[in-house]
Amino acid sequence: MAQRLSLLASLGTATAALGACAPGGEVPEERGQAPVYQGVSTILLDKDLVSLTVALTGTKDGSDVEAYGRCAAAQYALDQGFGFARQVRTIVKKDGRTWVGDAVYLLSAERPEGLRTIDTAQAVAECEVLGIPGQ
């Protein structure tokens, strides 16, 4: 009986070790690791249209990338004197261990129509609480 339990424990350890392997030689991200924000690149496309590219590591999916882009857009809009921003599109890709978000936002003084509008002052405050930088 003791040998059987020992064998099961060994198989469980081996299975867990194999489960940690990722295809293609990638090393999986550690669970519980905090995202590392790599910075924001901003391009003004028009007087009220901005493109932002954000990058981060240490996350398991694209939701942190979208949040980082939202915080960056809110901070940029607030810095430029705009009270609102509306997300036009966001494209999220993974390049090795780095997640990259490419987003476009429409900036406005008045609340724009649409479902993805951001009150910039409120969003910046929320981002600070969550520890997500805006720049």
Please give a quick description of this structure.
This protein is an alpha+beta fold. The protein has helices spanning 2-19, 63-79, 120-130; strands spanning 36-46, 49-57, 84-95, 98-108, 117-119.
Which percent range describes the beta-strand content? 25-35%
**Radius of gyration of CA atoms, rounded to a whole number:** 21 Å
Number of strands: 5
Q: Which spans of ≥5 residues are poorly predicted at pLDDT below 50?
A: 1-30
Order of helices and strands: HEEHEEEH
Instruction: Tell me the number of helical segments per DSSP (H or I, 4 or more residues long).
Output: 3
Largest sheet: 5 strands, antiparallel
Residue-averaged pLDDT, rounded? 82
**What overall form do the CA principal axes indicate?**
globular
Distance between the termini: 60 Å
Helical content band: 25-40%
Structural class: alpha+beta
Strands ordered across the widest β-sheet:
1-2-4-3-5
Please characterize this protein's 3D structure.
The N terminus is likely disordered. A 5-stranded antiparallel β-sheet has the order 1-2-4-3-5. The longest helix is centred in the first third of the chain and has 18 residues. It is α+β, with helices and mostly antiparallel strands and 135 residues long. It has 3 helices and 5 strands; from the N terminus they run H-E-E-H-E-E-E-H. Helix 2 crosses helix 3. 25% of the residues are buried.
